[in-house]
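user: Here is a favour to ask of a fellow structure person. I have my own habits and do not want them to colour yours. Could you put it straight underneath, so I can go through it closely?

assistant:
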Amino acid sequence: MARTRNVATLVFLVLLGAAAAFAYHGWRARARRAGHERAVALFDRGEYAAALGPLQAVYLAGPASPEGVDALCRACVCLEETGRGGEATDGWAKVISSPAAERYRARAALALARASLRGGRADEARRHLDAFPRGAGDSPLAAEALAVRALILEREGDLDGALAAAAEAGRISPAAVMGEPGGIFVRALLSRTVTPGTEEYEVRAGDSLQAVARRYGTTVELLRRMNAKEPGRDSLRVGERLKVCKMRFSILIDKSENTLLLLADGRPAKLYRVGTGKKGSTPAGDFRITLKQEKPEWFRPGGGVIPYGDPENLLGTRWMAIDSPGYGIHGTWEPDSVGKQSSAGCVRMVNGDVEELYGLVPVGTPVKITE
């Protein structure tokens, strides 16, 4: 009898333990789902820094659960959106091998390709990019994938292919040609290789860099840089072959995005971050560049001339006036003000960017400013 009672007690305790374990696991699953819902709500509102910790907690609580896999994917996105994309590489590697993460596979492939390219592993980057899902269409992710492919092609020495991929990326989404991908256009233009939109010109008697620049509607500075000529050494020899730019540039400034898009023959070439006028004070409309100045003086509103180099001179290293009196595109000594509505109405750029743009676009270049 006692033995029977002991067995019954043991069975009861086992069942009780199983029920407790079942209840505990159910509680954990409910808690994980609730935590996931709260984290996703933050994520969907764009509060990526706030969502990151809760998403990581959900993943650690159930890595193989549907909520855990989704949380890992979203946590990787949060890292990218908060400037910590390098920390997401291990997470993306797990994502791309998980059948449950199909909706994030494109982003994972793109992130891993970028990481490989940063590490100088172009072949590995190409393999990751080859895993990018087909049929992405004209999505921003497809544009980013094309921009990465353009960088790979550039490293492989295929400048024409790199330029074509970058141009297509810019057509889909101008944001894809900001930074290094947009730099492909400038690097190709300044190389000695004749690429689409450029040609060779044979110097004739009486030619000068100024005359050739006028003939092609380009700038002397661009001719110098394309042909590795130093300022002050502009002499030309009859029969010398110059690389020249045939393209016509135009500029599109978006006040709502604080961006400046350089177009070459109407195609996006490079996107720059800019600062525009406080409270929308930058004028909108169609303009042209009317004047270009290096090391400009600043005519202070209300009177007074502030020379270049004076800490109170706001114009940075370059000034390009447009045909709206008092307005133009200029550099700045305050790079943190770029990307915001921060100026008195002009368009300001980081000095390195405005110097690059200044060397490319001639007086007369169309400038369109949109709200």
Q: What stands out?
A: The radius of gyration is 29 Å.
